Amino acid sequence: xxxxxxxxxxxxxxxxxxxxxxxxxxxxxxxxxxxxxxxxxxxxxxxxxxxxxxxxxxxxxxxxxxxxxxxxxxxxxxxxxxxxxxxxxxxxxxxxxxxxxxxxxxxxxxxxxxxxxxxxxxxxxxxxxxxxxxxxxxxxxxxxxxxxxxxxxxxxxxxxxxxxxxxxxxxxxxxxxxxxxxxxxxxxxxxxxxxxxxxxxxxxxxxxxxxxxxxxxxxxxxxxxxxxxxxxxxxxxxxxxxxxxxxxxxxxxxxxxxxxxxxxxxxxxxxxxxxxxxxxxxxxxxxxxxxxxxxxxxxxxxxxxxxxxxxxxxxxxxxxxxxxxxxxxxxxxxxxxxxxxxxxxxxxxxxxxxxxxxxxxxxxxxxxxxxxxxxxxxxxxxxxxxxxxxxxxxxxx
Amino acid sequence: xxxxxxxxxxxxxxxxxxxxxxxxxxxxxxxxxxxxxxxxxxxxxxxxxxxxxxxxxxxxxxxxxxxxxxxxxxxxxxxxxxxxxxxxxxxxxxxxxxxxxxxxxxxxxxxxxxxxxxxxxxxxxxxxxxxxxxxxxxxxxxxxxxxxxxxxxxxxxxxxxxxxxxxxxxxxxxxxxxxxxxxxxxxxxxxxxxxxxxxxxxxxxxxxxxxxxxxxxxxxxxxxxxxxxxxxxxxxxxxxxxxxxxxxxxxxxxxxxxxxxxxxxxxxxxxxxxxxxxxxxxxxxxxxxxxxxxxxx
Lengths: 397, 297
Known about the structure:
The structure holds 2 protein chains of 2 kinds. Chain A is built from 12 helices and 18 strands. Chain A has helices spanning 5-14, 28-42, 70-80, 142-148, 166-175, 181-199, 249-256, 275-287, 304-315, 334-348, 364-373, 384-396; strands at 22-25, 47-51, 64-67, 84-85, 95-96, 100-104, 115-124, 129-135, 153-158, 202-212, 218-220, 224-227, 260-263, 268-272, 294-297, 322-329, 355-361, 378-381. The longest helix of chain A is centred in the middle third of the chain and has 19 residues, at 181-199. The longest helix of chain B has 13 residues, at 19-31. In chain B, the strands form 2 sheets. A 7-stranded mixed sheet of chain B has the order 3-4-2-1-5-6-7, with helices on both faces. Chain B has a 7-stranded mixed sheet with strand order 9-8-11-10-12-13-14, sandwiched between helices. In chain B, strand 5 (68-71), helix 3 and strand 6 form a beta-alpha-beta unit. Chain B is built from 9 helices and 14 strands. Chain B is an alpha/beta fold. Chain B is globular and about 55 Å long. Classes of the chains: A alpha+beta, B alpha/beta. The interface between A and B is large, with 52 and 59 residues.
């Protein structure tokens, strides 16, 4: 699960991480009162109005603006709230902005130039250990840094038995060029984000940029946190952090039926049991000359209800020109799935696009017979390659 | 011959009396697998499916000499169950459970570091040596004894490959479902090494997915060490970047873990990579008939 910047910062500050202070607002009016309160608390003379969406590159899309007066806060909040923000990570259709963060200005002048760093914690799958990555190149895309100047990225692996050690924090702080009191500031910053990562069962904490202010403080200007969905049972208060507006409506509907659905932009819908087979089926659709319209894993038990829910969700996508159902029956019996398909088809009624059902495994022949005898416009296949050919045929007609 | 499990394996079921454990233990018994008992804390001393129930894995090992365990314990308790099995001296631990938090698996991996055991999974269909032992949730009837080793990160896609191999007139030595999570006990490379050392495995099939570097790690080893033909398939050629496709492990992160990048490296390492999942079995058959003519496969 992804969090908004304001939610991530709130979690981080619970673990003692210093952040650029801010208040979330949903209307231009509340943005102005947030700005006043922020001025009272922090003494800031400028405000940053930041769109809160689950995508990076917000600044490039015009979703981050500096405001110099309270009137300016109102105008800029009004412009950003309700806009379709298009950033390199949102796709061309963009994302509707429903919330903004009014943040204090932390780039104020002082004895030193403010300096931006990068820092993240995530799992290194090849070692099975968590890794902290830090770089002197903050405020830019870390992928670009990794490609051009990998020597500017410092890595520390965390031994599970020892946890994050003080020497590792010191190594990072000195590698980043910290001096004087900044060193200890940086060490507590790193310890804080690691504590947050561990305690929240995060799968990613990314702070870009980490800022050394002109007076030597180290704080998080932006924050991105991803939580491990599998660990939700340990965190009763986390489900309320979910913002379903940030998710595709069809994906939300699917999750209510316990279906794992991801919308794509192709023309052939598919419904499959098992994630690996679902991906393989999508690949096969492409090889057959089509484009997958979705990923849909109906899980282990393809019952009448799940098949019907899957059908309805796929059919809501107007781009879909054909549907391929690919079920490998193990524990699930193909005759039951076939019965489910026929029943769901009848319940929905008026299905105008061709449906190809490929059933293999337990009772596959019985399943195929049920489909053929149903009199519905459903084509049945048993071999995977036959199914691919049927899809190709359906797209031609 | 086979790897990991055979007809002499003595298997216990952790989470024995739960609905999943009961159903699959029954299926395993029907397949002819030597299930010698199970564990449900608090129910020790009773009988379930005519097999003894124990409170701890250690009790079960003492009483039954079990050497393999299969785990159906819910995600919140699964990491503990894996460690308990390792502590009791179980040699092969098969964790079926889906949805174990990553933080728990980091601890498990650390705990197992110096133990003499092998973990398969979690979030996997298990392992089967056809005709001898089924330690998993796969449909037994699609398998047939033979000489092809199959290693896969997926469940139903493995069944697809198995079915094609069987229909191509070949059989399987052992099929290993290694699981789709970011942290797993046995990697593609570990499985490939087992098959390479197994005299009765003449060819291997690697079913991979986008994400991580397990298939390419295996490919590089195969290039200089493997003596047997290998067919490979990578699911997710059409997967968009950065989306979670069901398996937590199947997220495209960098440039090298896309399907295209993996397939290219595997091909360069001498693996016969197929781009359609429909021709895995045929590809194996063609290669064997060319390279291994006359050995009776």
